[in-house]
Amino acid sequence: MPNNLQDTVTLNNGVNMPWFGLGVYKAKEGSEVIDAVKAAIRAGYRSIDTAAVYGNEEGVGQAVREAMEENGLTREQLFVTSKVWNSEQGYETTLQAFENSLKKLDLDYIDLFLVHWPVKGKYKETWRALEKVYKEGKVRAIGVSNFQVHHLEDLLEDAEVVPTVNQVEFHPQLAQPEVLKYCQTKGIQLEAWAPLGQGRFVDHDIIKPIGEKYGKTPAQVILRWDLQMGVVTIPKSVTESRIIENADIFDFELSGEDMQEIGALNQNKRFGSDPDNFNF
Asked: How many other CB atoms are found less than 10 A from the CB of residue 55?
């Protein structure tokens, strides 16, 4: 169980990934994303998660480079994730998309590169391209995002490299037990996006009292629950105080009873798109 913000999990290829990071979905390119990333790194975060479609890779890269200098960090101490967008999927287009992300980030390599959504008829070719850049050493780990069990089973039929990570929507009302179990059996690390349900649990009548017991906010309780479930988590914020608050979860542990109570809230309820029915 991670004891501090810089603790890592070892992925199935031996690469160490921080348990906790900053997501920058909807953070505006320019000063907003730059300030958020620099605030996070200053606060001790070592993992930043972006994507081509977020339109802020340049700002993320700039912030990472500046934060390294300002905080006396080496590139190896930071973990940067990006993702190939759906319109770029396919073999040649993914190879080009990877180069575009690398160029925008302006880093020597990317730590983790993901297939953003399982685009039907395309994700296998996309994966083949990721395997190529991985074997070339341009990326330290490759993985997927929003894959259900059947997508993973299909991918693994032909894959030479097993995905290291599957990043999915994951929160108390969407605990994805089948996906979590399957990934655990295959050595694929589950990672949560939208872990706070985009702010829907702030006044939750079960989570709030659990937080009061530990002197923690509902958000801190949920993020701690993620970690105790063995799920890497990347809450998004552009507010420095919230970025710091989100990470203040390493000085308490939820009891087994609390874990079960939160787990019982699962309704398989999505706030984001359904990986089996999306049209983008």
From this structure: 15
Q: Point out the catalytic residue in the list 54, 123, 134, 182.
A: 54
Sequence spans of domains, the chain: 16-198+231-242
If phi > 0 it is left, if psi is from -120 to 50 it is alpha, else beta; for residue 106 that is left
Look at residue 1 in the predicted model and tell me its pLDDT: 83
54: annotated active-site residue: yes
DSSP letter string, 194-211: STTGGGTTTT-TTHHHHH
Q: Nearest CA to 161 among 200, 121, 198, 134?
A: 134
Q: What is the pTM of this model?
A: 0.97
Task: Name the CATH superfamily housing domain 16-198+231-242.
Answer: NADP-dependent oxidoreductase domain (3.20.20.100)
171 labelled binding-site residue: no
Tell me the mean pLDDT in the region 32-55: 98
Q: Which helix (H) or strand (E) holds 239?
A: none
Structure tokens at 248: 């203040």
Phi-psi region of 14 (alpha: psi -120 to 50; beta: other; left: phi over 0): left
Q: What is the pLDDT of residue 198?
A: 85
Alpha helices in 140-274 (DSSP H): 149-158, 177-186, 207-214, 218-228, 240-246, 256-263
Token pair recorded at residue 103: 């160029």
Phi, psi of 176 (to 5 degrees): 45, 50
The DSSP symbol for 183 reads H
